[in-house]
Amino acid sequence: MSYEHTISEIVKVVEGVGAGIMVIGGLGSFVVFASRARHAKTAQGSYDELRRNLGRCILLGLEVLIVADIVRTIVVDTTIESVAVLGIIVVIRILLSFALEVEIEGVWPWRRWQLRSRDARVPPDNS
Question: Is this model's pTM higher than 0.90 or not?
């Protein structure tokens, strides 16, 4: 068993973990949503929480998949074509991650400080 073969098998496991995070996390998000949506007290924000949880699962899974792609390209397949494909994959996943982050937070990343400062000024609702 060669070094490249071993790393290739490890990369497959890491890819499986990334996909598993998205699938299991997504199913878990739906279970939490169904539980919250059934109760009148928590039903109001259950859909928004579902979207945030799904987005977080997808983001985490994408990060793990990027790690697998980088390791594969650096260790296993170090051709110009594989580096170019890696670059394209990373750019697409970064753009997707960026879009998901904006969808989850509801604000551009460079405007996040304004959201935090606004939340700090608003007194908590003690009703």
Answer: no
